Structures are given as structure tokens and as C-alpha cells.
Amino acid sequence: MKRLYFGLSLTLLAGCATHFRSYWNVREMVLSPGPVIELATAEGKVLLTVEKRTIQKLFLYHVRIARAANVQTELLLVDGDEPNAFAALINGRRAVAINLGMVKLIGADDDEFAALLGHETAHWAKGHVDSGRTRSRTIQGLGTLVGVGLGAVGVPAAGLISGVGADIIESSFSRDDEREADALGIDYMMAAGADPWAAVRLHEKMLARPGGVRIPFLSSHPSSLERIENLKRLIEAKKLQSQTGRAPSH
Predict the structure, then answer these.
(1) pTM of the model
(2) Angle at 188 between CA 213 and CA 236, to 5 degrees
(3) At 97, is the secondary structure helix, strand, or coil?
(4) Are strands 133-139 and 166-171 parallel, antiparallel or unpaired?
């Protein structure tokens, strides 16, 4: 079992306030030996144990979706108990992040990860993060924590964690942005070979969770029965289009 350590104390804002202390680069996690990976803080506290196969499938969908969207982003896992995912600019580089609460919620449904990646990547592809940028600031003094990065356990540290500062960009997405990301995200899922109905399953799963609409992801990505119905209509229309080669009539 491979234990991956990393700790950074920062606040990242992307659509809503997103606080985390630790993050792990999925690209580097794929290189880890062994069938199971322990994600631990710099202090050695294990926050989550995850099968390497899950990480590999997650990264594969990330690569496929990024290729379909023609964008380059880093894929990160971050700590946090309440399910969340977001697109943000970190140290001047594009990133898509999924927190550990969301990883636990999704569990073994790899296609639900594809739904998250498709949606967040669509925000980058359509320029929503850049156009919604409202504030940036640099948090300094992180250099003392870099030494306990992935390199300490024999896994090369990612480029994102090599600096002593983190540029944090706050973005606010409109409802039109969210609708556009929903539609484009389904396209990216299908292009990546994922089941588009996983987007519906994911939203239903989040709504069914105790606390439902109050979880962070839903505060910046409104989920409701109406949105679920819209997703269903989107999927049916896109499947019909892929079968007939033309858009459905209205």
C-alpha cells in the first residue's frame, strides 16, 4: 500500500469559497506502485484509502475529456468532507479539482467522475473561468511545506507544487454558464466513452444525501429536480442526434 503525503494551507475560490489544506496531483498518483493508495496529510494522517484502479480510470477520463475539449488542465484531489468539485486557476495553471468528500460519494461509479470532469472542463473550454474572474491574490510562505510533498515518498512532485506561492483566482459562474457546461459536458462524456446517464445519477445521488442542497458543490452548481430533467432531455437529444446524424426537431 502506497501512502502519498502532501500538505498546503490555502484557500481557493472558484464559484464559491473552497477551503482545503492538502491536495494531490492525480497524474503523479498514477505512477504510484501497488494496488491501493493512502492519501495522507503532511502530518501523516490518512484521509482516504483509494484503489489505484479508480485513480487510473479517473485519470484516463481526464485525458480523454481534455482531448475532446482541446484544453490542458491539471487534475487534483483536495481534502474536504462535503462533496465538491471546481475549475480554478492555481499558480497560473488551469486545474480541475475533486475533493475527497466527492470521491467517497461517487465510490465505484467511474462514469460519475466523467460527469464531473466533463462539466468542469467545459467551464475552461468556454472561457467561463477567465471571464468570471473577480479577484486574485497570492499566498506566500508555502515553501516550508513543499519538502513534504510527493517526492518525499519516491513519487516525483508535480509542477504545481514546486513554487512558494499560489495564485488563487475567484470565479463566479452564471446560470447560463452552468447550462452551457451541462450541455458541453455531456458531449465530452460521450466522446470519452462514458455513460452520459451518470450525470443524472450523480445529481440524484447528491440530492438524496442528507443535507442535500446545502453541500458546497450544489451551492455553486445548483442541482434540482428541474436540472435533472433538463439533463435527461439533453442526453436524449444528443443520443438521437448521434444516431440520426442530425439535431432533433422541436
Answers:
(1) 0.76
(2) 70
(3) strand
(4) antiparallel
In the numeric block, which cell numbers belong to residue 58?
A: 479517473
**At residue 146, what are phi and psi to the nearest 5 degrees?**
-65, -30
Name residue 135's beta-bridge partners. 170
Contacts of 233 (CB under 8 A, 6+ apart): none
Q: How far apart are CA 174 and CA 128, in angstroms?
A: 9
pLDDT digits (tens, 9 = 90+) for 35-71: 999 988 877 888 999 999 999 999 999 999 999 999 9
Answer yes or no: are the C-beta atoms of 185 and 199 closer than 8 Å: yes
CB 141 within 8 A of CB 122: no
Cell 439535431 sits on residue? 247
**Where do runs of H (alpha helix) occur along the chain?**
26-29, 52-69, 100-106, 110-125, 128-131, 143-146, 175-191, 197-208, 216-220, 225-244
The DSSP letter of residue 107 is: T
Residue 125: alpha-carbon gap to chain centroid:
14
| Cα distance between residue 83 and residue 155, in whole Å | 27
45 bridge partner residues = none
Residues 158-171 have pLDDT tens digits of 333 333 333 444 44
